[in-house]
Amino acid sequence: MSFDLIKKVNDAQKKRQVVDVRSGDTVRVTQKIKEGNKERLQTFEGVVIRCDRKSSLTSRITVRKITSGVGVEKSYLLHNPLVEKVVIVKRGKVRRNYLSFLRARAGKSARLVGKDFDKSVNDIRDEHAEEEAEKVKEAKKVEAEAKAAEKAAEAAELAKKQAEVEAAHAANS
C-alpha cells in the first residue's frame, strides 16, 4: 500500500522526458541559479563520469571538466526543476559505467574515443515547462503594460500640474 503511494508521488515529481545520458558523453547542462530575488542560467560542459539510477526519480549524473588545470566535478539530479536542460554534445566509446580512471589522467590521455550518434536525442520537449514559460511571459507582459500605463498616468498628472502652475504664473504676471 505505502509502496504504491510512494511510487505515485515519485512519478508525479518526475519530468516527462529526460535525455538519455550515458557515461562517456560530453554534455552541456543548463541550470537555474537563484541569487537573492534574481535568477540566471548557468551552463556547465564536461564529460559524464557516472550515471546512477536511470529509471528513478533520484537519477543523477556526475559531470567532470578541467578548468585552469583543476578538475571540477558537479552532480546533477536529472529530475530537479532547477536543471533546465541537458544537451549531449558528443558521445564517447566506453565500456564501463563509472569512469573514475579519468580523475588520474590529464591532457591527451584523458580524452575518450568518440562515436557517432543520432543528434535527435537532444530533441526533448517538455510541454508542461513550455506552457509554464508562456504563462510567465504573459504575466511579465501584463506587468510591463501596467507599469507603462502607470507611468503614462503619472506623466499626464505632472503635465496637468505644470499647466496649472504656468496658468497661475501667467495670471500673476
Brief rundown of the structure:
The protein is an alpha+beta fold.
Number of domains: 2
CATH architecture of the largest domain: Roll
The rounded Rg comes to: 26 Å
DSSP helix fraction? 25-40%
CATH class designation of the largest domain: Mainly Beta
**Major β-sheet profile:** 6 strands, antiparallel
- Regarding quaternary structure, what we see is single chain
The number of helices is 2
Poorly predicted regions: none
- Provide the structure class: alpha+beta
SSE series:
HEEEEEEH
Taken as a percent bin, the fraction of beta residues is: 25-35%
The average pLDDT is: 89
DSSP E strands, number: 6
CATH topology of the largest domain: SH3 type barrels
Describe what you observe in this structure.
The structure is a single chain. This protein is α+β, with helices and mostly antiparallel strands and 173 residues long. It folds into two domains: 2-124, SH3 type barrels (Roll), CATH 2.30.30; 126-173. The chain contains two helices and six strands. The chain has helices at 2-13, 127-172, and strands at residues 26-35, 38-52, 60-67, 70-77, 83-92, 114-115. A six-stranded antiparallel β-sheet has the order 4-3-2-1-5-6, with no helix packed on it. The model has no long low-confidence stretch (mean pLDDT 89).
